[in-house]
Design goal:
Largest sheet: 7 strands, antiparallel
CATH class: Mainly Beta
Number of strands: 17
CATH topology: OB fold (Dihydrolipoamide Acetyltransferase, E2P)
Order of helices and strands: EEEEEEEEEEEEEEEEHE
Strand content: 15-25%
Radius of gyration: 22 Å
Strand order of the largest sheet: 9-16-10-13-14-15-17
Number of domains: 1
Helix content: under 10%
Length: 278
């Protein structure tokens, strides 16, 4: 796992960096765990554009990931570490002793030939999934459930890691990657370790074509539009006047809190994330 740079034989090539994929052990996915993935182009079921800058991109097949880790008490062998085009982290193909194969999120340090398991009696080891009640304070975890049995919701992208800070009553305090500290039920499952592919954040796309391959369409600046199309549009030159940064629908873009004050999960947040962290 590392960053690959290129000889700048074109202007854009000078800044392009890619993953060297040195941690990948198998290039072809497990066919039994693939399903077709249809692209929406950012449109809803009525055909109306609801998410801007989505569309196109390379065709992909979805890998079915076991976020629940509900096959408890059965040991699995890691067969391969694979690339997943649908997520930033690596995935690991595991085979259980009863013959079933599943994909799981691959943590740092998991290798081919290692054994993983899940359940209350599982060992505190990288790749094992246990209830938060059975994980010691200070342990680094990922793929954390929000509701018991629902499957992991937190810390699933490349390099993400959470840490158990304390336990009190029926809840444990977990520090999120953003710095927020949140209470989560002790019955929820989590996986030991940090998500793999730590260098993902250091990759530079470098040119427009790579963005289009990822399904990212061009983004036009508001100041480049006409006044009828955006609050920043119109005027002379690049000036947007005295207007504060806003969205196309005139919602403030800096400092304005969009989270509902009546959101029921607010009661579980102990400390908010630091100011300026997204």
């Amino acid at each position: 796992m590392g960053i690959k740079i290129y000889t700048p034989y074109t202007p854009s090539r000078r800044f392009i960096t890619t993953d060297d994929f040195s941690d990948i052990t198998k290039s072809t996915p497990e066919k039994s765990l693939l399903v077709p993935l249809k692209k929406t182009g950012g449109r809803n079921n009525r055909g109306r554009l609801t998410v801007r800058h989505h569309g196109g991109g390379h065709k992909q097949m979805y890998r079915i990931i076991d976020f629940k880790r509900n096959k408890t008490g059965i040991t699995a062998d890691v067969l391969s570490i694979e690339y997943d085009p649908n997520r930033s982290s690596r995935i690991a193909l595991v085979k259980y002793s009863d013959g079933e194969k599943r994909y799981i999120l691959c943590p740092v340090g998991l290798k081919v030939g290692d054994k993983v398991s899940s359940g209350e009696n599982a060992e505190i080891k990288i790749g094992n999934a246990l209830p938060l009640n059975n994980i010691p304070v200070g342990t680094e975890i990922h793929n954390i459930e929000l509701v018991p049995g629902q499957g992991g919701k937190f810390a699933r992208s490349a390099g993400c890691v959470c840490q158990i800070m304390a336990k009190e009553g029926d809840f444990t305090a977990v520090r999120m990657p953003s710095g927020e500290i949140r209470r989560i039920s002790l019955k929820c499952y989590a996986t030991i370790g940090q998500i793999s592919n730590l260098d993902h954040s250091n990759i530079t796309l470098g040119n427009a074509g790579r963005s289009r391959h990822l399904g990212i369409r061009p983004t036009v600046r508001g100041t480049a539009m006409n006044a009828v199309d955006h609050p920043h549009g119109g005027g002379r030159g690049k000036s947007k006047g005295n207007k504060n940064p806003v969205s196309p629908w005139n919602q403030p873009a800096k400092g304005y809190k969009t989270r509902s004050r009546k959101k029921w999960t607010s009661m579980y947040i102990i400390n908010r994330r630091p100011k300026g962290v997204r």
